[in-house]
Amino acid sequence: MSMNSLHDLYVDELKDLYSAENQLLKALPRMAKKAAAEELKAAFSEHVEVTRKQVERLDTIFAGLDVAPKGKKCKAMEGLIEEGKEVIEAEGHPAVIDAALIASAQRVEHYEMAGYGCVRTFAALLGYDEAAGLLQQTLDEETKADKSLTKLAETIINIEAEGADGDEDEEEVDDEETEDETEVDDEKTAPKKAKGTMKKTVKS
């Protein structure tokens, strides 16, 4: 890879984003399938379609540059998706899993926002005004998606996840009360058994 000019860097960053978006296209349906809350499922499914349009914009930009979009793998996105895979394979309370999925998704959104912000600026400096406009459009979409996930987390998912701790505590208390009741029953039963044995001894 040669980076002797801003144009070289611009192309390289665009290829990185192209790889990132295509990796994300494969990951989002799996995240939607894992999500328990219908609102979260819908958010992930909707972003699949948004991501497809973002890939199409990148194709348009590469066509204008007369450069092939492939040839680089985004290792950062690969790592983020691998972390998300751990959540997908995890077991636990549905709301807690959903909260973890949102956290993973927002890491992805923040990475993309940083990337698109950079290439948008490069495009503007290089005089690629049409490309800069397309990149800004994608940046706006990523920002909107991030805010939507934050709202979903703060108003529904995180609240339900926090309540999951209370459910576990109540179960533990119930278990302790059951154990205490069992011990009391045993204490009540034990003397009766002893008396019965004594009566039999006296008769014989």
Could you say what the CATH architecture is?
Up-down Bundle
Number of strand elements: 0
CATH topology: Ferritin
Secondary structure class reads mainly alpha
Q: How many separate helices?
A: 5
Quickly name the level 1 CATH class.
Answer: Mainly Alpha
Could you give a short account of the major beta sheet? none
- The averaged pLDDT comes out at 86
* Portion in beta strands: under 5%
> What is the distance, rounded to the nearest whole angstrom, between the alpha carbons of the first and last residues?
102 Å
Low-confidence stretches: 168-174, 188-204
- Domain count: 1
Helix content: over 70%
Order of H and E elements: HHHHH
Radius of gyration, in Å, reads: 29 Å
**Large-scale geometry:** elongated
CATH superfamily grouping: Ferritin, core subunit, four-helix bundle
Q: What would the keywords be for this entry?
A:
mainly alpha, disordered C terminus
What features would you describe in this structure?
With 204 residues, this protein is mainly α. It has one domain: Ferritin, CATH 1.20.1260.10. It is built from five helices and no strands. It has helices spanning 6-34, 38-65, 75-89, 94-126, 129-203. The radius of gyration is 29 Å and the shape is elongated. The protein starts with 5 loop residues before the first helix and ends with a helix.
Quick overview of this protein structure:
With 204 residues, this protein is an all-alpha fold.
Secondary structure topology:
Blueprint: H1 6-34, H2 38-65, H3 75-89, H4 94-126, H5 129-203
Helix pairs in contact: 1-2, 1-3, 1-4, 2-5, 3-4, 4-5
